[in-house]
Specification:
Blueprint (H helix, E strand, L loop, with lengths): L1 H28 L2 E3 L5 E3 L4 H7 L16 E5 L5 E6 L4 E3 L8 E3 L10 E7 H4 L7 H7 L7 E11 L5 E9 L7 E6 L6 E7 L4 H10 L1 E2 L3
Antiparallel strand pairs: 1-2, 1-5, 3-4, 4-12, 5-6, 6-7, 7-11, 8-9, 9-10, 10-11
Length: 216
């Protein structure tokens, strides 16, 4: 009988340690979600809020009607800004040097649904420093899930930033995503990367066209 009680006590203690460890992990690495109201919370703290921003039956693509207001989002580390529909919920990662912004949509983990991040070119390949077009042409080589470049197009957005629209072929011979690369003025080591896999193309193009960067 004593052995059974001792086993139960040890089981409760181990379970408590596991749960507390999970709580600490969420506190340290959880995704900070920015809600339309401007409120924030750290992923894992509020189950109801998490269910609200991750609807289980979300459509495959996000879209917004013409009546939806657009609001500005500004980078926390770098001086970029862009506009997006007010109903598009974004997630940020605390203490993230790439200043990444994730889309909170469906049940896709935020880490796999990055809308924008600032790439450090030297950490990829120093040979591409100051050569954004070459970097965009060869970006697929840094990822095992991609096998080639399908097409690339140079353009200038409404803010006067020079960008490159690239489409890559994955290992399944598909091209489901569009990747955009913008040169950062006076910073040859960095490039703004914007990707789309779930946004309505018109919404995505409008976000890309609204991107701006204030010189430091």
């Amino acid at each position: 009988m004593k052995k059974i009680i001792l086993g139960l006590v040890l089981g409760v203690v181990v379970l408590g340690i596991v749960l507390y460890g999970g709580y600490l992990y969420a506190q340290k690495f959880g995704v900070k979600l920015t809600l339309p109201s401007g409120q924030t919370y750290l992923g894992g703290e509020d189950l109801e809020a998490n269910e609200l921003v991750n609807p289980p039956t979300a459509p495959q693509r996000f879209t917004a009607g013409p009546e939806v207001p657009w609001k500005e989002y500004r980078g926390k580390v770098y001086n970029y800004s862009f506009k997006r529909p007010e109903t598009l919920k974004l997630g940020i990662f605390p203490n993230d040097s790439t200043d990444a912004v994730a889309i909170i949509w469906g049940n896709i983990p935020a880490q796999r649904n990055i809308l924008l991040n600032v790439e450090d070119i030297p950490s990829r390949d120093p040979a591409y420093v100051g050569k954004v077009e070459d970097f965009a042409r060869n970006w697929w080589k840094f990822f095992s899930g991609l096998k080639n470049l399908d097409s690339i197009e140079k353009f200038v957005n409404a803010s006067g930033l020079t960008g490159y629209r690239a489409i890559y072929i994955n290992t399944a011979d598909q091209s489901p995503n569009v990747d955009i690369f913008f040169a950062i003025p006076n910073n040859p080591n960095k490039v703004i990367h914007i990707a789309n896999g779930i946004l309505d193309p018109e919404i995505f193009d409008r976000i890309v066209d609204s991107l701006n960067y204030e010189a430091e």
